[in-house]
Amino acid sequence: MSSQSIDIEVLGRFIRVNCPDENSSDLYYTANILNQRLEKLKEQTGTYNIEKLIFVTALNVCYELELEKQKSVHCIKHVKSRMLVLNEMIDKALEQE
Fold it and tell me: What Gene Ontology biological process does one annotation of this record name (predicted)?
């Protein structure tokens, strides 16, 4: 797996990062999303302090990620419980034969 150095732009600043060749388009896409979020926050708050914008955005992203993890755990528990019910139904149906 080879990697390359690519430049991404965030808030008008370029940052060089190493990235596996096959992930470069994903990195550009993700950097664009980050840049949009930072620009939106900058407009909403009127803050031009890049460090503060990045810090608040990082906190928001971490919070959103944690919410998604909780949703995933809930979904997995729900699917497992439904599978148990289905297994019981199948077992009962097989016993009646």
Answer: FtsZ-dependent cytokinesis
Question: What would the pLDDT profile of 37-64 be if each residue is shown by its tens digit?
Answer: 999 999 999 999 999 999 999 999 999 9
Rounded to two decimals, what is the model's pTM? 0.74
Both tokens of 7, joined, read: 């430049």
What whole-number distance in Å separates Cα of residue 76 and Cα of residue 84? 12
Q: Any idea which fold 5-95 has?
A: Double Stranded RNA Binding Domain (3.30.160)
The answer to whether residues 18 and 33 touch, using CB atoms and an 8 Å cutoff, is no
CA distances from 24 to 15, 36, 44, 54, 80 (A): 14, 18, 30, 22, 37
